[in-house]
């Protein structure tokens, strides 16, 4: 491997309606959650494990999500993993990991 890149690919279902915000500059950001499922056997029984991922999209990707994606939509995304921190209303430092979307594919066929 010559280079290792920060690349994430996920296919799953949107957990709630995406939330968009347009800044005074005109830039738009859309945030949403995505559930992915994994299955394994435990004592001979199939068990489903769900992981939740925070996704963020800017610009054209944000517009596309705002227009076509709703709770329950099945989507595929490609992006990169990012981490950041912020201070909550109580003044406590919070950390969050998100997938910054580069590409999105709508899988519902609607």
Task: Describe the protein.
With 110 residues, this protein is mainly β. It has one domain (8-106): OB fold (Dihydrolipoamide Acetyltransferase, E2P). Helices cover 9% and strands 62% of the residues. The protein contains 1 helix and 6 strands; from the N terminus they run E-E-E-E-H-E-E. It has one helix spanning 59-68; strands spanning 8-14, 19-22, 28-42, 45-58, 74-87, 93-106. It has a 5-stranded mixed barrel with strand order 1-3-4-6-5. Strand 5 and strand 6 form a beta hairpin. The radius of gyration is 16 Å and the shape is globular. The protein starts with 7 loop residues before the first strand and ends with a strand. The model has no long low-confidence stretch (mean pLDDT 93). InterPro entries: NA-bd_OB-fold (IPR012340), Primosome_PriB/ssb (IPR000424), ssDNA-bd (IPR011344). Keywords: DNA-binding. One of its GO terms (molecular function) is single-stranded DNA binding. Pfam families: SSB. This is Single-stranded DNA-binding protein.
Q: Name the shape in a single word.
A: globular
Helix tally? Answer: 1
Kindly state the number of beta strands: 6
CATH topology annotation: OB fold (Dihydrolipoamide Acetyltransferase, E2P)
Q: What share of residues is helical? A: under 10%
Intertermini distance: 40 Å
Looking at how many chains there are and whether they match, the oligomeric state comes to: single chain
Subunit structure: Homotetramer.
Organism: Antarcticibacterium flavum
Keywords: DNA-binding
Protein name: Single-stranded DNA-binding protein
């Amino acid at each position: 491997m010559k280079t290792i890149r920060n690349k994430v690919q996920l296919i799953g279902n949107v957990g709630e309606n995406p939330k968009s915000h347009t800044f005074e500059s005109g830039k738009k950001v859309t945030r949403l959650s995505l559930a992915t499922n994994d299955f394994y056997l435990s004592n001979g029984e199939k068990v489903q494990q769900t992981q939740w991922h925070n996704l963020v999209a800017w610009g054209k990707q944000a517009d596309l999500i705002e227009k076509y994606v709703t709770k329950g939509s099945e989507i595929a995304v490609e992006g990169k993993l990012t981490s950041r921190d912020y201070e909550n209303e109580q003044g406590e430092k919070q950390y969050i990991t998100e997938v910054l979307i580069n590409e999105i594919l709508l899988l519902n066929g609607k």
